[in-house]
Amino acid sequence: MKVVADMSPRMSRRGFLTATAGAASAAAAQPLLAACGGGGGAPAKTGAASTSLLQRILPHYQPSSLVKPDYPSVNGSSPAYLTYPSRLVKTVSEVPGSGGSYTGITPLWGTIPSANNPFDQAVNKALGATVSVSPANGNNYATILPQLFSGNKLPDWIQVPTFWAPPLNFGEAAATRLADLTPYLAGDKVKQYPNLAAIFASGWQAGIWDDKLYGFPSYTAGFNFGYQLYYRADLLDKLGIGTPSVKSMNDLFDLAKEVNDPAAKRWALGDIFGYLYQPFDYPNWMLDDKGHLITQYESPGIIEAMNWMAKAIKAGLVHPDQVAGNYGNGVTEFYSGQMVIVSDGSGAWNAADAQKGQAANKGYKRASFDFFTDSGSGTPRMSLEAATAWTSYLNKRLSPSQIQEILRIGNYLAAPFGSVEYHLLNYGVAGVDYTMTAAGPQLTATGTKYAGSAVSTYNFLVSPNNTVYNAGYPEVTKASAAWGQRNAKYGYQPLFYELNVTVPNSLSNANAFTPFVQAGNNIMYEVARGRATIADYQSTVANWKRNGGNKLKTFYEGVLAQQKKLGSA
Amino acid sequence: MTDAAAPTASRPRANVVGSDSVIIAAADATAGSRRRRWWTRLRRDRTLLIMTLPALVLLAVFGYAPMLGLVMAFQDYDLYDGFLHSPWVGLANFQQLFTDPEFWHSFWNTLALFSVQLALFFPVPIALAILLDSLLSRRLRGVIQAVVTLPHFFSFVLVVTIFNEVFGGAGLLDTFLRSHGVTSPFDFMTDPGTFKFLVTSQLIWKEGGWSTIVYLAALSAISPALYEAAAVDGAGYWRRLRHITLPGLQGITVLLLILNLGYSLTFGFEQMLIQLPAVGPGTAQVITTFSYKNGIVAGNYSYGAAAGLFLGITSVILILGANKVAHLFGEDGLYRK
Amino acid sequence: MITTEPARSRRPVPRAPAAGKLTARLLASEERPSWQERPRAATQGAKGGAITVIVALISIPLYTIVVTSFSTQASINQAGGMVIWPHGLSLGAYQEIVSGGVVGRALLISLGITAVGTCLSMAITILAAYGMSRSGSFGHRTVLWVMLITMFFNGGIIPLFLVVSALGGYDQYWALIAPSAVSVFNVIVMRSFFASTAQDLIDCARIDGAGDWRILWRIVLPTSRAVTAVIALFYAVGYWNSWFNIMLFMPSDSAKWPLQMVLYDYLTQNSQSVEPAAAGFQSAVPTLALQMAVVAITIVPILLVYPFVQKHFTKGVLLGAVKG
Predict the structure, then answer these.
(1) Class of the A228-383 domain?
(2) Residue B270 within a domain
(3) Domain spanning A51-222+386-491 has what CATH number?
(4) Looking at beta carbons, which residues of chain C come within 8 Å of B222?
(5) Which one of A31, A303, A331, A388 has the lowest number of neighbouring Cβ atoms within 10 Å?
(6) Which of B52, B237, B304 sits opposite C156 (nearest CB)?
(7) Which domains does chain C have, with CATH numbers?
(8) Of A394-408, B95-109, C62-76, where does mean pLDDT reach its minimum?
(9) Which chain C residues are Cβ-neighbours of A155 within 8 angstroms?
(10) Would you list the domain boundaries of chain A?
């Protein structure tokens, strides 16, 4: 039973779909790339590439800082606040909407609130327009997207995470179905929307397809990565280990052996394979030691990761449910102490987690290992994800005046932390949806139902840069923000960082990396469980290469060459 | 509804249908011309055909029209080019399908898993129906029937979760064994060797009760007079079972067998998809999950359509074959010969 | 042993040794027909044992589901999953489901769709099944095959979606009924029962001058109460449970959602694909208690409806229909 939802763009690593690895693109229609178009699909389209072109398309970033953070951003980490600002600033002076009515679809991992509830009404009143967002079940979302696009049944505003874009042939989708926002937002045009300008340019870059800006970013973060390694600090204290020092994979293994005790229903590890790309350092695309372009699946690092995982499973250090691929109960098992060390995204470390954990165990405390290297020597490296994977798009059928109204609405929705607008969108109406306590605003029961889940709904249209604030749990903020400040320096931009490549149709099969990506059903998973050997893995990779993988690599080599030529690699 | 039940009664085979049947039948016999017979039979049975029209219309719109989409199997389907403009690739998708070892592996897995499930599952609802039917207290029977039917309404996700709670590595059984000294207890949920029995037991638990409904209806159609007559003639319980009850269920059993055979290749999607991680694709990959993984998940709709087309044709062949076999045994099967 | 409607001779059966009034009422046997042997104690014991085991196998997991639905999140977190020994209890999950108002409306929608859909489907199915059930009738096998083919060949989600939306069905209620109004499986089962209706009955009616409609209405249907009840149950359950059509044709208009879609939302938070929690994202995923409460709610309507359907499965419904 899955309790926590996901949402890291790092999903490309592990879940469902993969391989956009953020955005990227070479200039359109270079002969090299067109030749790689292969069997009759559209010529290889890629988005904006050269730095100068990018500068012309991207909105000019204008930082805004309403409240000084207690933990300021270091190397891109998200700023953190220990207390809620007592004085809120109004960033939008006049009502943004002009009475228009718009429909939207966003994914929701949570209970669907009733339509047109009081919170929605309050927000719509503040917006001066009717924005009725229908949240659709997040677990089905990938299935309904093809229908909506192919049947041309798109609403006015729709959220399409970049990791679900590939099967939609998004370059073509954007051109035929979505509204081009470049004329409204490029360069200095964004100045009339100060809150939108305050979103990092790297966030906007995620919404660029084929030299045009289409997407609004949500949950933009400078230091965006897939997984970090957590552990139950209180359990380690109880076992007398205290604060562990894990600097290498061997250290991790030894620690796991120490805390593992199946007879007491305590296993050391969850399935942490998804995290192992950090210590072993194999990003989606990389250069091998001869300087050739390879995928993560051809790297030596992934083989070592599989071996390590297999050793851990064989030694009985991994929880049986995780070995069996029953990940749904993972978080509950972590709360109950059945697992001590797990991997998860950065969104798992927050007030809600502390509250749930402490309800089960008074002393519950989540902590995280700093990034480390596999051998213990050298500097740890963490390949970054794009600043966001959450991009929302407008329907091409909207008129210019409608688009402008939506942009003004978007400006309201993107109001940063510490503003009146942000407060309304995330906490709702005073007394109804939340009560102000000494520890900050606390959502009421009504609030969690509407404002809580609606946090995702409006925020999936557009939201400001990520900030960390946990009402009532300042120690969580302290720990997680300090961790962020310490580890952000290990982040680096891998190849094709922030590049939205539209792979030609004939290569889309290879680009799906099917044998490698389905959770619980991929070849690395099988090797880790001893049901396949490394030799089987190698032959799977060889098969993939034969069936379009090599052509895909050639295509990406072309992209890389383009980037070098344009000076943006 | 007693024809099938009476072991000694002859099966009425009056080929007499529709109105004016007797007269027309006589006329047929003396008419001679085939064409006239064809036309008169149509006229005679037109009411019956009219009755089937609403169903046919609905199926034409929602069954056959979408079936045209199977043309995807011969195209390199692109979501935006649609059916009309996607490039034609002929049999290329099928070629890729048939040379994919994973496809054949999942084909054999499907057959293997299905056979075991069929053999072990099929008798259960029949036995359960007979057992329930033999209860004298109608109330008790009703209560039990209601209870055993409930798991049918659970999704397989829930069923697997429940099984995992009991049989999983961290479940009741293994925890019990571990606390009694067994260091690495057998994990029923992840052992590939016993997987077929695992899925069969899941199916029995989930669907066994629900499947008794049809058999109970069939049992209620057997005339009690037959039992009385047999008992009077001195037949004991087991003989009555063998000569009255089982033959009475024979027709519906054969029908359901044939229909299930038709579904055999497409079964198990949700159940296998959930448990693929536990035992691995070598054991649990069936055609439907294969088609899902390579078709929908990868965005390769053509490939999925090709697999679907292949499945459809094979299922039809299977059903035809099964029906013929049934006829050989003197059964009606899907339809009388 | 098969019970029957009161036959000519009755023999009063001794009361079961009462273990309590309830048990006595449950076990109160009906008339055992005169020709039936008295069961041996061993047989009774074996039967009882088998039934107890079967019922236990199902009731115990049901019990876990119900207990978990009434458990506090704390006790679930403590147990690390489903709760067996109740620790903290609370009505929170049920309150949350019922109070949203979403469920109430969805319930009404579901009832409406089920009622309309079942009636429609039954009418169409009965007609079609009878229309094909007379052996020797013109073209009945062709029609049967035409229907059968649709069971095996299926263009997939996208073509169906395109057809329905071309007909204007997107976000319409009829899109939840029409595409699945005909279940060929049900038609075939019903047809098989119709085909084995005593031919002499029908012949008598024909000689009396009855047409096909009259025969269907007056003779075949009344003697097919059991199968009609069964197929109606199948359809009703199908409509009640279906969420797939909703997901396809009404994915986002949640005001129009029937109950199953609302409940499915709660349940599918158990997806097997696990994704890491995003930065800054506050999820409000429902708890295990909520999910189990949803499952429990699903069961209640079935338990309510069941008694009404069951009486159609009793013996001797046909007595009197066959003359001699």
Answers:
(1) alpha beta
(2) yes
(3) 3.40.190.10
(4) 2
(5) A31
(6) B304
(7) 100-269+288-313 (1.10.3720.10)
(8) C62-76
(9) 252
(10) 51-222+386-491, 228-383
| Cβ <8 Å between C150 and B59 | yes
Radius of gyration of chain A (CA): 23
Chains with ≥3 CB–CB distances under 8 Å to C? A, B
**Chain A residues closer than 8 Å to B184 by CB:** 316
Name the β-bridge partners of A344.
A228
CB burial of residue A429 (10 Å; 0-12, 13-18, 19+): middle
Q: Does A320 touch chain B (CB under 8 A)?
A: yes
Decide: pTM greater than 0.90: no
Would you state the pLDDT for residue A273?
95
Verify whether the Cβ–Cβ distance C265 to A111 is below 8 Å: yes
- Please count the structural domains in chain B: 1
Q: What is the DSSP string of C271-321?
A: -SS--PBPTT---BPPPHHHHHHHHHHHHHHHHHHHHHHHGGG-TTTTTTT
* Angstrom distances, CA of residue A447 to CA of A83, A118, A428, C181, C300: 20, 10, 7, 41, 30
Average pLDDT for B313-330: 86
Q: Quick one: average pLDDT of B155-176?
A: 83
For A7-44, give the DSSP string: B-TTHHHHSS-----S---PPTT-HHHHHTTTTTSPPP
A16 close contact with B: CB closer than 8 A: yes
Question: Is pLDDT above 50 for A44?
Answer: no
Instruction: Please enumerate in sequence order all residues whose Cβ is within 8 A of that of C95, keeping only pairs 6 or more positions apart, or say none.
Output: none
- Rounded Cα distance between C191 and B82, Å, is 39
Q: Which residue of A has its CA nearest to C275?
A: A6
Chain A residues touching residue B178 (CB < 8 angstroms): 262-263
Out of B79, B281, B303, name the one closest to residue A146 (CB): B79
Supply the range of the domain harboring residue B154. Answer: 91-328
Neighbouring chains of B at 3+ CB pairs within 8 Å?
A, C
Q: Which range in A399-413, A463-477, B160-174, C153-167 is most confidently predicted, on average pLDDT?
A: A399-413
- Chain B residues within 8 A (CB-CB) of chain A? 76, 78-80, 82, 87, 161, 164, 168-170, 174-175, 178-179, 184, 187, 189-190, 192, 276-278, 280-282, 293-294, 296-300, 303
State the CATH number of the domain containing residue B97: 1.10.3720.10
How do residues C200-235 score in pLDDT, each as one tens digit? 778 888 888 878 888 888 888 888 887 888 888 889
Residue A399's pLDDT is 95
- Does the beta-carbon distance from B69 to C50 stay under 8 Å? no
H or E element at residue B298? none
C-alpha dihedral, A526 to A528 to A534 to A536, nearest 10°: 0
